């Protein structure tokens, strides 16, 4: 026997025949159960004995159409055959009733199926009682043994059908559970893919929008002074070259990170677990990781370089650090930097001013970032929601459980503020 083959019940449960094939099986069983050779053993007239035997067997060919009605007819016929068994004749075995009752657990609830089984056994018992009360029949002991054997056959048939029903139910539930797990895995994969696309979109927007804005301003300056002040035009072009090269480095680092193989991802995850994840509550952010040989992701320590690039575009940025510098997670460090970068980019594009102020506050439980300007134009365009800058900043801050506000100041100017909780992220 093959040790890897499934149990017999499992193989039967997996058996799938067409309706006409099952009907053929039922007809064959009905003919075999008819047993016309038993006619001489009944005390009824020949035609009545034949009718009773037909009643006790042939209807099982239709058991799949009317299971209750067929069971009732077959059981009545079997009880009549048992009650009319002649003296010293072999007791009638209710094969038709056994075959009919085996379908009951497959079609009806367990409670109803048990009641039908009980009714079948009682009907058989009545038949044996009539047989035992007849004159000259076998002793009560022999009749009891025959009744017990018939009852065992009926109950065993019912149990076989019940076991088959349980196996099919288990298989159906297992398949449904497997399908549900697959659906959940697909949903999780789509969610992760969506998060990664949003993260990549934020990174590309922050790098490209900031750089292109600076390049556009510097190119405008160069074009304006190219004839009257060639030295200033050359300085603007040099700043454009430096800015564009920096953007290319960041984009190459981002693309290289996206192409990193699984081993590099696992090593980076392990490195993040030893460093950044010690602060806890840091969401999975693949862009935050830095693979060997790639340009490190920017952070608050790089604000000086950001201010220098912005100054080349004609915007003076006053940086103020409040409080004592504390360690923050790599994700919050990058998010705070990107918020400041995007806010400065919006000042360059919309504020019509040449100065703004950046304030970074380190508190025991909170990191605060604020960017204000005294411009008077473009406030509506900054909060209209038509672009991705405000949305991207809000998503970054919300990802770490922080608060974000952006809006015009009384009179003139615009303010962008963010608060990153450090206690929850570090506990």
Condensed summary:
The chain has helices spanning 8-14, 19-34, 46-55, 67-83, 95-101, 104-107, 110-133, 140-225, 230-258, 262-274, 303-312, 330-351, 379-383, 389-399, 423-426, and strands at 316-322, 355-362, 366-373, 403-408, 414-421.
Walk me through what this model shows:
There is one protein chain. With 427 residues, the protein is an alpha+beta fold. The protein has two domains: 8-181, no CATH class; 298-427, Heat Shock Protein 90. The chain is built from 15 helices and five strands. It has helices at residues 8-14, 19-34, 46-55, 67-83, 95-101, 104-107, 110-133, 140-225, 230-258, 262-274, 303-312, 330-351, 379-383, 389-399, 423-426, and strands at residues 316-322, 355-362, 366-373, 403-408, 414-421. The protein has a five-stranded mixed beta sheet. A hairpin with a 5-residue loop joins β4 and β5. α3 (46-55) runs antiparallel to α4, α7 (110-133) packs antiparallel against α8 (140-225) and α12 runs antiparallel to α14 (389-399). The two termini are 59 Å apart.
């Amino acid at each position: 026997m093959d040790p890897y083959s499934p149990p017999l019940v499992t193989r039967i449960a997996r058996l799938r025949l067409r309706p006409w094939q099952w009907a053929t099986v039922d007809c064959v069983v009905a003919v075999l159960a008819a047993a016309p050779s038993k006619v001489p053993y009944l005390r009824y007239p020949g035609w009545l004995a034949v009718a009773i035997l037909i009643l006790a067997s042939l209807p099982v060919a239709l058991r799949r159409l009317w299971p209750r009605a067929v069971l009732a007819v077959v059981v009545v016929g079997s009880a009549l055959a048992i009650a009319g068994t002649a003296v010293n004749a072999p007791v009638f075995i209710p094969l038709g009733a056994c075959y009919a009752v085996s379908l009951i657990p497959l079609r009806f609830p367990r409670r109803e199926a048990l009641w039908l089984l009980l009714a079948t056994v009682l009907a058989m018992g009545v038949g044996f009682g009539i047989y035992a009360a007849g004159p000259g029949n076998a002793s009560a002991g022999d009749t009891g043994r025959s009744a017990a054997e018939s009852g065992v056959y009926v109950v065993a048939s019912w149990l076989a059908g019940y076991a088959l029903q349980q196996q099919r139910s288990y298989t159906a539930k297992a398949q449904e559970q497997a399908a549900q797990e697959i659906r959940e895995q697909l949903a999780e994969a789509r969610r992760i893919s969506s998060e990664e696309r949003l993260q990549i979109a934020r990174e590309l927007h922050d790098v490209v929008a900031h750089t292109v804005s600076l390049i556009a301003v510097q190119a405008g300056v160069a074009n304006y002074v190219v004839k009257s002040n060639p030295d200033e035009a050359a300085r603007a072009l040099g700043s454009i070259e430096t800015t564009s090269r920096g953007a290319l480095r960041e984009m190459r680092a981002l693309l290289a990170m996206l192409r990193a193989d699984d081993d590099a991802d696992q090593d980076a995850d392990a490195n993040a677990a030893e460093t950044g994840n010690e602060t806890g509550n840091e969401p999975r952010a693949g862009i935050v990781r830095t693979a060997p040989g790639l340009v490190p992701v920017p952070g608050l320590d790089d604000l000086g370089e950001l201010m220098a690039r912005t100054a080349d575009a004609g915007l003076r940025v006053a940086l103020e650090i409040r409080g004592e510098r504390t360690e923050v997670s790599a994700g919050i460090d990058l998010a705070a930097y990107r918020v400041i970068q995007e806010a400065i980019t919006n000042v360059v594009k919309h504020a019509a001013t040449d100065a703004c102020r950046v304030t970074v506050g380190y508190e025991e439980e909170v990191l605060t970032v604020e960017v204000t300007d005294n411009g008077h134009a473009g406030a509506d365009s900054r909060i209209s929601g038509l672009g991705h800058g405000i949305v991207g900043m809000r998503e970054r801050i919300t990802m770490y459980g922080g608060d974000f506000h952006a809006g015009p100041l009384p009179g003139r100017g615009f303010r962008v503020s963010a608060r990153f909780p450090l206690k929850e992220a570090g506990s």
